[in-house]
Amino acid sequence: MPNKILCVAEKPSIARAVAGHLSGGQQSVVSFAPLDISIFVKNFDFHYNFPPPWGSCQVTMTSVIGHTVEWDFTKDYQKWNSCEPHHLFDAPTEKTVGDRKDIAENIKTEARCSRALFIWTDCDREGEYIGTEVRDIARTVNPNIEVKRARFSNIERAHILRAAQHPVELDERQAQAVAARIELDLRIGAAFTRWQTKLLQSIEGLEQKVISYGSCQFPTLGFVVDRYRRVKNFVPEQFWSIKVMHKRDDINVTFNWDRNRLFDRMMVIVLFEKCLQAKKARVTKVQKKPTKKWKPLPLTTVELQKLGSRFLHITSQEVMSIAEKLYTNGFISYPRTETDQFDPGMDLRALCEKQTQSPTWGPFAQNLLNGAFESPRNGRNNDKAHPPIHPVTYVTPNALANQNERRVYEFIARRFLACCSSDAVGEQSTVDIQYGPEGFHASGLRVIARNYLDVYVYDKWESSQPLPQFIEGEEFVPTEANITDGKTTPPGFLTEPELIALMDANGIGTDATMADHIAKIKDRGYVFTRVRAGGDQQASGMEEFAPSNLGSALVEGYDQIGFENSVSKPFLRKEMEEKMKKICEGQMERHDVVHSTIEQYREMFLRAKQQSRLLKDITSRYLTDDGV
Amino acid sequence: MPPTAPPLDHLIQALSSPPHHLPVKPTYLSSLLNALSSSPRGLPPPPALIATLKFRLLAADISVSLSSLPQHCLPPQLTTTPTGWCGEVRGAVLQVMDMVDITMSNIEALDALDMATRGERAQGRRGEIIRVVNDEDGGDGLGEDRERTKKNACHKLLLEDAAGRRVWALEVERIEGVYVGMGIGGKVWVGKAEIARGVMLLKRDGVKVLGGKVEALDKSWKDGRREVLMRRIEEHRGGR
């Protein structure tokens, strides 16, 4: 066997980049017989010195395009009327190559004459699984082929070379976890989708619609409906407050009530009168304290999605798609990560150095290198797979395709530089007074050094009006004191960052999939979005979610069917995600996870079937009475 | 011979004085002692007797068990004069009939109640609880619980004396033992409190929570709580 090694990446662009680095630009391109999509998949041939035992090798680098293998039920069960939906929990499944035949053929052809197979798929669970797909295809023609895996977090040359020199084993456990998820989503999704679609199709307005079910979609929908209900059921209540004002040195100082506000008018009047009775207020504490506004933590996927929504008004799906592109082009590190601490061995200064080229934040980066550099804060998470999201190299705005790409890259760059600077420093002065039985306080902020705020323009911290001089123990008659009132206001509908935060807190989806689930419930017509108008600057312009009538009907229907773990609540999916984690850690076997989860859902399915009348009536009501 | 009870006077004296502050009605005390004597275990020995009697008194309705002499009750002017009456209370024993945390809106109180209820049910579901994350303000889960009461809560209590007079009392300073859910029928000793506009102002050094609760009253309060909150919310909906 010639000393040939086959390298397979997850996407053509990665294959091209890796081939370029390993070959030193000396790769020769050999496209194979094009057939539709495989027009984009090229094979690159070159020489490379791998570490022992392989040594100097001939290399062919190619790629797949995501999943090559599809999972579905066997032919007998594919038609909707072929069986009762709950049979799908146990029906036989099969893996087929589907419309990726030519990609699979390419792998086989190259694997036949290769000594080893190096997997270069993305380093996350899905990538690990795709790696096993490729391995299995290769082994059909070359059962003894050696299989190794390259581990990399960005497409930079040094990084890729290091990955090639230190190959590892494929993580079979992660692949098993993904296999479990795929099987569960297939069985549970199909069973419930078929059943509820057939049940509800007879309702006017739903005739042609497929009413899909997904075990992540429903809890996501559940959060939206929950908030919607709160807003709809909200009743404003009046509250009262006491405000004390005093003029000194031509400055009007407002003292805020320590109790903030009370919801009982009579009691506020009683307390207010006691204050007035005392006539004089006494200063109980005067304090000047240094204070700081902390610089941000290193950037994770969830934070990028949340803040992309909040600051840039870009949906999480678009943010992730842009981030993917920036990564594939070698501008940023792998954008799917939970890690919010930088490895101490990383050369962060070198990364800052690259940013000095920017006409906008270049000077700030230069300043860091001239001595202002400070180590980033450490968060609490480390997924041990990838570092926090950071810019790998500087890219000029013109080299990016559109405004949104520029803004996302800018955010990532600014955030990184902010991590490497100092906290903002200020001085907080407070004055506490006792007026009758009640306490009040006034405060002033003086921002002394903006530091990270100069580059991280997304955070605000402004000096307030200065406080005049007060002395502890002094007494004065306040210029003015009165009772004010207000009304509570309803919360807004759920915004995307809030929804992501809820999904994150409740274990729905992973950083890789959250944006997809949100997109799905929009696509299926379960929720719709609108731009929030008016209000404060930060909140307006953001997308907010409201459930459609169909979405509300489904959640209410399933809630009333009263599952112990209603499908619109996050518990079941959270448990599933936790079991996935256990497979990765070797604590559970894929078979047990699939089996136990199927049993849970089978029980719920039967219960739903018994109560199908209820679900149908509720949906009917929502769609005809327009949600009343 | 079974132990005889100490003289009634001694017992009344002991119970009325600090730290118990329970001026028991002589007739009620007699019936209590009789009941205890004729019970299977008989009268407890002297040291335990006071504790047992105290326990029973804290669980009994104030109107039947405690003295309605003026020195133990609220000033009559409170009920006969329209609000605006100012004065002082010295040494009254009162029973808690209702409590409201006025730092919370009714909707917040209802939420807290529901979360506490769900929290208990969720325990049965292997400890899974939805953690609600709110971006704008940290809405913490407040509850019907001593542990869950906010540090800066402010309660108003509806207090009743042995003669049946009632007054709303305001916690001007946070008082140990006061929280929503503290037990209807629980007893409070007011050593010293000012009354302004018909409202009793409670400060730490004038008040002591004695504890206890009247089971029947407490249960009906707890059972009806959700409905009461919903009704108040609806009243707000109608506009004021």
- Oligomerization state of this entry? heterodimer
CATH class of the largest domain in chain A: Mainly Alpha
- Number of structural domains of chain A: 4
Gyration radius from CA atoms of chain A, angstroms: 30 Å
What CATH first level of the largest domain in chain B would be assigned? Answer: Mainly Beta
The percentage of residues in β strands of chain A lies in 15-25%
Whole-angstrom Rg of chain B: 21 Å
The third-level CATH topology of the largest domain in chain A is Topoisomerase I, domain 2
Number of strands of chain A: 18
Task: Estimate percent helicity of chain A.
Answer: 40-55%
Described by strand count, sense and barrel closure, the largest sheet of chain A is: 7 strands, antiparallel
Domain RecQ mediated genome instability protein 1 OB-fold (chain B): 92-225
Pfam families (chain B): RMI1_N_C, RMI1_N_N
InterPro entries (chain B): RMI1_N, RMI1_N_C_sf, RMI1_OB
Domain RMI1 N-terminal (chain B): 21-63
Protein described:
The complex is a heterodimer of chains A (628) and B (240). Chain A is of the alpha+beta class. Chain A folds into 4 domains: 4-170, 3-Layer(aba) Sandwich (Rossmann fold); 176-233 and 492-624, Topoisomerase I, domain 2, CATH 1.10.460; 238-288 and 429-454 and 475-487, Distorted Sandwich (Topoisomerase I, domain 3), CATH 2.70.20.10; 301-419, Topoisomerase I, domain 4 (Orthogonal Bundle). Chain A is built from 19 helices and 18 strands. Chain A has helices spanning 12-23, 75-78, 101-112, 125-141, 157-165, 172-200, 217-232, 265-278, 301-312, 316-328, 348-355, 362-372, 403-419, 496-505, 514-523, 549-561, 571-584, 590-610, 612-624; strands spanning 4-9, 28-31, 42-49, 56-63, 70-73, 93-96, 116-120, 146-149, 238-248, 251-257, 281-293, 424-435, 438-449, 475-476, 480-487, 494-495, 527-531, 543-547. In chain A, the strands form 4 sheets. In chain A, strands 14-11-12-13-10-9-15 form a 7-stranded antiparallel β-sheet, covered by helices on one side. Chain A has a 6-stranded mixed β-sheet with strand order 2-3-4-1-7-8, sandwiched between helices. The longest helix of chain A is centred in the N-terminal third of the chain and has 29 residues, at 172-200. The radius of gyration of chain A is 30 Å and the shape is flat. The mean pLDDT of chain A is 91. Chain B folds into 2 domains: 8-58, no CATH class; 70-237, RecQ-mediated genome instability protein Rmi1, C-terminal domain (OB fold (Dihydrolipoamide Acetyltransferase, E2P), Beta Barrel), CATH 2.40.50. Chain B is built from 7 helices and 8 strands; from the N terminus they run H-H-H-H-H-E-E-H-E-E-E-E-E-E-H. An 8-stranded mixed β-sheet of chain B has the order 1-6-7-4-3-2-5-8, with no helix packed on it. In chain B, helix 6 (106-124) packs across helix 7 (215-237). Chain B is globular. Chain B starts with 7 loop residues before the first helix and ends with a helix.
